[in-house]
């Protein structure tokens, strides 16, 4: 298990500290680079991250690589984890945000899905769980509805009202278009085990990668830098177990910790203040949920991939 220490959010958590101490986890010190990568990054700093990532220990054969990455502000680092995959893969993406914006910089936590779609071995991305207002007026905000229309990206909100669009997008796995509205197949209304079984049956590849932003979870299960979704931890654990039982998991990355961000970059400071809820909303007790949730995730990973 790899701990990418970008923002101090992980190493003090008991389940991670214990595994670092006994050698079940390895820490990669990225603290000097973390502020430069947070929210968005220049290509130069992104490539610096790639080079440091290559210094991690070689993974065991036939064992998925597990990464804990810190704040969801670093989700745009996921494509670096996917770059060396040697076979076709479906990316299963749990998130409260679709991260599909085309107007943002290329290496941005809100646009990284578009970069991942361009990787040669990513055959489809399935995004599960958004509740955020990114799905309101997505064409105006730069949402990549073209990828949804082609089927390269499937999107299943946890709970969201119909989305207004201009023009014909067409029906897809996650929605039905009626006139100028996309009516979503909201996951909160589905029988979860049945939905996951159907999802697995429709995946185009035998191999998968799972990427998790814990802001997909309800506030009862996580406390992040972003607005929280509605999925419960039990849903997430069930989905991972079912996916691992039917598909070959090549890797898993987890972000969505809470970490204060004293941005020195004026634009990042403005963006964080504009887009993120105030950090004061969480108490120390709230933040303990992240450790509890990580403990449950790690225990499941160790059970499934001994």
UniProtKB/TrEMBL annotation:
InterPro entries in UniProt: Ureohydrolase_dom_sf
SUPFAM superfamilies the record matches: Arginase/deacetylase
Domain of life of the organism encoding this protein: Bacteria
Gene3D superfamilies on file: Ureohydrolase domain
Protein name in the entry: Arginase
Species annotation: Pseudomonas helleri
């Amino acid at each position: 298990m790899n701990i990418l220490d970008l923002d101090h959010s992980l190493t003090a958590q008991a389940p991670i500290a214990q595994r670092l101490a006994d050698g079940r986890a390895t820490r990669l010190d990225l603290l000097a680079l973390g502020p430069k990568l947070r929210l968005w990054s220049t290509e130069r700093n992104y490539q610096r991250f790639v080079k440091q990532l290559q210094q991690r220990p070689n993974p065991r054969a036939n064992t998925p690589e597990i990464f804990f990455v810190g704040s969801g502000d670093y989700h745009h680092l996921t494509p670096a984890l996917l770059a060396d995959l040697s076979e076709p893969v479906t990316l299963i993406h749990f998130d409260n945000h679709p991260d599909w914006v085309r107007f943002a910089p290329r290496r941005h936590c809100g646009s990284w899905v578009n970069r991942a779609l361009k990787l040669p071995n990513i055959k489809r991305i399935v995004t599960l769980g958004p509740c955020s207002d990114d799905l309101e007026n997505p064409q105006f905000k730069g949402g990549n509805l073209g990828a949804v229309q082609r089927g390269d990206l499937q999107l299943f909100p946890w709970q969201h009202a119909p989305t207004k669009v201009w023009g014909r997008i067409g029906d897809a796995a996650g929605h039905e278009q009626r006139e100028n509205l996309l009516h979503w197949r909201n996951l909160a209304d589905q029988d979860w085990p049945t939905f996951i079984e159907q999802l697995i049956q429709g995946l185009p590849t035998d191999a998968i990668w799972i990427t998790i932003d814990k802001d997909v979870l309800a506030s009862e299960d996580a406390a992040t830098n972003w607005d929280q979704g509605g999925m419960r931890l039990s849903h997430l654990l069930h989905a991972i177990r079912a996916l691992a039982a039917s598909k070959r998991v090549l890797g898993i990355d987890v972000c969505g910790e809470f970490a204060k961000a004293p941005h020195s970059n004026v634009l990042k400071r403005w963006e964080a203040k504009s887009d993120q809820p105030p950090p004061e909303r969480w108490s120390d007790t709230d933040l303990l949920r992240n450790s509890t949730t990580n403990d449950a995730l790690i225990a499941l990973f160790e059970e499934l991939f001994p």
